[in-house]
From TrEMBL:
GO terms for biological process: tRNA queuosine(34) biosynthetic process. The gene is queC. This is 7-cyano-7-deazaguanine synthase. Pathway: Purine metabolism; 7-cyano-7-deazaguanine biosynthesis. Its EC number is 6.3.4.20. Catalyzes the ATP-dependent conversion of 7-carboxy-7-deazaguanine (CDG) to 7-cyano-7-deazaguanine (preQ(0)).
Amino acid sequence: MEKRAVILSSGGLDSTTVLAMARAEGYACYTLSFDYGQRHRAELNAAVRVAAALGDVEHKVVSLNLDSIGGSALTDAAIAVPEEASEGIPVTYVPARNTVFLAIALGWAEVLNARDIFIGVNAVDYSGYPDCRPAFIEAFERVANLATRVGVEEGGIRIRAPLMELGKDAIIRRGMELGVDYGLTVSCYQATDEGLACGRCDACRLRREGFAAAGVADPTRYRKG
């Protein structure tokens, strides 16, 4: 029987690495992205490029309107994207985003008879988001197996977060081993429509430092000035 997995794909560095890792494990990969009202919409184009380059079975984009509730610099144009590191949970945190994304991925996984959902969350080089912690992933997996037919009758489903304990440099090195072209990806919180990165936000900082620490040339296309 074909081994299927749903991969949450943002078009960024981490989720692209996770997709490559799932493919290397022999999964037939179904990639899932979200048009959730984010200001950095270039990531959706990047997710399409990545899916095609790494050979997924199907790429699906689900539309949500998280911008209708706001509460984040990524969904509310009135909140500026910070360009310096901050203490605590930053304003780029999108309320309940990973909970919502995983819930929809869980539904698609049931339809596909996929027993694994992969997500690129990371507890080492991350921005302080509460829904990127091991405790959250473990808790959601318990909920998934309580609330679904596959959990109750068909052996269960796993939430896989293979980058959880890796630093950004280790993630990049693993991706390079798997042949990932990081030039296809977009990580910037305020990238232009063409995918040019600002070079100043937290996502850009972590990405740039990761490439430097990995000893790999940074393929990111930055805005001039």
